[in-house]
Design a protein that fits this description.
This protein is of the alpha/beta class and 266 residues long. It contains four helices and 17 strands. The two termini are 18 Å apart.
Length: 266
């Protein structure tokens, strides 16, 4: 790989984190994705996090493969495969040039500028120049994907971006605590009112017509209010299995930030 000695760690393998990992890998950087043991990714068809349970996943021709140690992660990443390691913490044994916090917690959990030569945060909760070197804007609109070198991204509005004319209507949250079971699959077309599955004993129904773009992994126990599914009113079934425009835009910003960081230390 072009930058084989400059491993980049992406914390979070959901759709945006995967967009970042995909673009960094294509640009020549070895990428290691860190995840939790039971990932909460919704767009699992295009999430590196899916390799945690499945061992591997292929996304637009790029393989993401689960590994068990930091040493294996570095070796696999340098071979051109995205390495996926279950590690809620940042492994000190993993030598790295960059860290991208893609956990989208809307707050800074534990990211610091001393964790790598170039530390990048996605979205609100980070301040460039304070707890990271750069922030990438994640809000849809004119500034999506821009790199911020001083200050923060737009604040969290608490509402999903508008897609196909729908915002909060397209997101399904667990109506009750419990284990999630699905009656539909990613890519299925659904109509408003159709049963999607259950959270515990409580049924979940489609709020709008559209295509099932994402579903949290079945069998996971969630708390009431947890985001568990996404319906896209544009009903483009093929798009369910492609990295989104938003994820690629954010990924492009991350590549810019990492390359800029590399130029500053070279």
């Amino acid at each position: 790989m072009l930058f084989s000695e400059h491993v980049v760690v992406v914390r979070g393998g959901g759709d945006l984190g995967t967009g970042v990992a995909f673009r960094l890998n294509r640009a020549g950087f070895p990428v290691v994705v860190l995840e939790i043991a039971e990932p909460l990714a919704i767009r699992r068809a295009v999430a590196a996090a899916s390799a945690v349970a499945g061992g591997r996943v292929e996304i637009e021709g790029l393989e993401a493969r689960r590994v068990e140690t930091p040493q294996a992660a570095r070796r696999v990443a340098r071979s051109g495969v995205i390495a996926v390691l279950v590690s809620p913490e940042l492994p000190t044994a993993l030598s790295k040039f960059g860290v991208v916090d893609a956990r989208l917690a809307k707050r800074n959990i534990d990211t610091r500028t001393d964790q790598a030569a170039c530390v990048v945060g996605l979205g609100p909760g980070f301040t460039a120049g304070v707890d990271c070197h750069a922030v990438i804007e994640t809000m849809r609109g004119h500034h999506l994907g821009r790199v911020i070198w001083q200050g923060s991204a737009a604040p969290n509005t608490g509402e999903p971006g508008v897609v196909g004319g729908a915002s909060t209507q397209r997101v399904i949250r667990a109506p009750a605590d419990g284990t999630v079971r699905w009656a539909v699959a990613i890519g299925d077309l659904v109509t408003a009112g159709q049963s999607l599955g259950r959270s515990g004993e409580t049924e979940m129904t489609a709020p709008i017509d559209g295509v099932v773009r994402g579903l949290i992994a079945p069998g996971i126990t969630v708390a009431k209010g947890t985001k568990v599914a996404d319906i896209d009113p544009r009903a483009d079934q093929a798009a369910c299995f492609e990295i989104s425009d938003k994820a690629l835009a954010v990924g492009g910003g991350a590549v810019e930030a990492i390359l800029t960081g590399l130029s500053r230390v070279s």
